[in-house]
Specification:
Strand order of the largest sheet: 7-6-8-9-5-10-11-12-13
Largest sheet: 9 strands, mixed
Structural class: alpha/beta
Number of strands: 13
Order of helices and strands: HHHEEHEEEHEHEHEHHEHEEEEHHH
Shape: elongated
Distance between the termini: 135 Å
CATH topology of the largest domain: Rossmann fold
Number of helices: 13
Helix content: 40-55%
Oligomer: single chain
C-alpha cells in the first residue's frame, strides 16, 4: 500500500516539483562563463595546500622541512649563472679583497661594464644577458672616474645605460633622529627598489663600516647585506681592503680585514695578488666558493696585467700560473735567464704580447727588457 502511494502520479509530481525548486536554489556554477578551468582549480588547491605547509614549517626563527621538500623547492629556482667566470655567480654575496693600489676598483668597473653590456671579459665566462647594475662608488670622484675612462679627459669611453654609478651626495644629511648608518642603509635599499637592479657592486665595504676588521662591526654589516640579497634576489660584489701582509706568503682568508665574520657570511670570495716578478702583473685567486669547486687555487691562479689600450683602464688576461712564481725573489741568474728567453722569442718574430703570455710577464716588461738589452 505504501509503495503504491510513493509511486502514485501525485507523489511523482510532488517530488519533481521539489527537485526543480532545489535546483533553482542551488544552481550549477558555470565555470566556462568565468574562464575557470580544471587547471585553475588545481593550481589554487596546490597554493592553499602549500600555504598550509609553510605555516606548519615555520618555527619562529627557523624553517623546518624534510630534505626532499627542500630539494623540490630548490628545483623551481633557476640554476645560478656565472657573472665573472667561476669567481662570482648569480645570487651570491661575493667579496673581492686586495691591498691598496692593486686595481680592485679597475676590475670591479670592468666586471660591471661586462654585465651591463652582456659581453664577457676575455678569459672569464659570462652566462647572463645584459642587465642593469648599480655601482656604488665610495672611492673616486666623478673627475677621477672620467680620467680612467678617457684619453686625457677626451675621447671618453661610452658606457651602456645599464651601468648606473652611484656616489654619496655631500649635501645630503640624515633626518633628525636617524643615524648616518641607518640613513645610508635606507638609501641603499631605496636605490635598489626604485631602479629595479638585481646586481650591486659596492666599492668598498670600509665606507659602510669603517671598523670592519672588528667582528662586532663586521657581523651587522654582513647580516644587512645578506638580508638585502635574500629580500630582493640580488647578486652583490663587495670590495674590501687587506691590512699590510707578508708578500712572500700565499694569500689566505686570514688576509681579509675582519676575515672570520666577513668570510663566514659571504657566499664566495676572491683576491687580487701582486706579482713580485713584474709590477704590472696581478693574479686572481679563489678564496671561498659554494657554486663550484676551487679551480683557481695556489697551483692555478689567473695572471692578468693592467692595461689601457685606449680609453678604458682594465685587467687583461695573460695566462695561468702558480702563485709561488709571483711570490719568490728573483736572483741575478733568474733575471739573466729571463732576458735570454725574451730575446730568443723576439728573434723568432713573436710579438711583445705573445712573449709576455708565454713567459708570464706583461708586454711592457718585455719592451723594457729588450730596450735594456739593446742599450748594453
Amino acid at each position: 500500500m505504501e509503495n503504491n502511494q510513493l509511486n502514485s502520479p501525485e507523489s511523482l509530481h510532488k517530488r519533481q516539483s521539489e527537485d526543480t525548486n532545489f535546483k533553482s536554489l542551488n544552481p550549477v556554477f558555470d565555470f566556462d562563463k568565468y574562464g575557470i578551468g580544471a587547471e585553475d582549480i588545481k593550481d589554487e588547491s596546490e597554493r592553499l595546500f602549500n600555504e598550509g605547509n609553510e605555516a606548519k614549517e615555520s618555527k619562529g626563527l627557523f624553517t623546518v622541512k624534510t630534505a626532499s621538500r627542500w630539494i623540490e623547492q630548490a628545483k623551481t629556482r633557476p640554476i645560478p649563472k656565472m657573472l665573472f667566470g667561476e669567481f662570482w655567480f648569480e645570487g651570491e654575496l661575493c667579496i673581492l679583497f686586495a691591498d691598496t693600489n692593486l686595481g680592485k676598483s679597475i676590475l670591479a668597473v670592468q666586471i660591471g661594464n661586462s654585465i651591463s653590456r652582456g659581453e664577457q671579459i676575455p678569459g672569464f665566462k659570462l652566462e647572463t644577458q645584459k642587465q642593469l647594475i648599480l655601482y656604488f662608488d665610495f672611492e673616486l670622484s666623478d673627475k677621477q672616474f672620467e680620467n680612467r675612462y678617457s684619453v686625457k679627459f677626451e675621447h671618453h669611453y661610452s658606457f651602456d645605460n645599464n651601468f648606473i654609478r652611484v656616489e654619496i651626495n655631500p649635501d645630503a644629511f640624515a633626518p633628525d633622529g636617524i643615524s648616518n648608518e641607518n640613513y645610508l642603509n635606507h638609501s641603499l635599499e631605496r636605490s635598489i627598489t626604485e631602479t629595479g637592479a638585481k646586481v650591486l657592486i659596492i666599492d668598498n665595504l670600509t665606507y659602510l663600516k669603517n671598523e670592519t676588521e672588528k667582528a662586532k662591526d663586521a657581523l651587522p654589516l654582513m647580516k644587512h647585506l645578506k638580508a638585502l640579497k635574500n629580500k630582493y634576489g640580488l647578486s652583490i660584489l663587495a670590495l674590501a681592503h687587506t691590512p699590510k701582509r707578508d708578500l712572500s706568503k700565499p694569500i689566505t682568508r686570514n688576509d681579509l680585514q675582519g676575515s672570520k665574520m666577513l668570510i663566514n657570511f659571504c657566499d664566495s670570495s676572491f683576491s687580487i695578488g701582486e706579482s713580485h716578478s713584474d709590477k704590472n702583473l696581478r693574479y686572481l685567486k679563489q678564496i671561498k666558493q659554494r657554486n663550484t669547486e676551487q679551480i683557481y687555487d695556489a697551483e692555478n691562479v689567473c695572471v692578468c696585467q693592467i692595461d689601457k689600450p685606449f680609453n678604458f683602464l682594465m685587467f687583461e688576461f695573460v695566462n695561468y700560473g702558480k702563485e709561488w712564481e709571483h711570490l719568490k725573489q728573483h736572483t741575478e741568474k733568474d733575471k739573466e735567464s729571463l732576458n735570454e728567453k725574451v730575446n730568443e722569442l723576439k728573434q723568432q718574430g713573436r710579438s711583445y704580447r705573445e712573449i709576455g703570455a708565454e713567459l708570464g710577464i706583461s708586454h711592457m716588461k718585455v719592451s723594457r727588457i729588450l730596450k735594456d738589452c739593446n742599450t748594453l
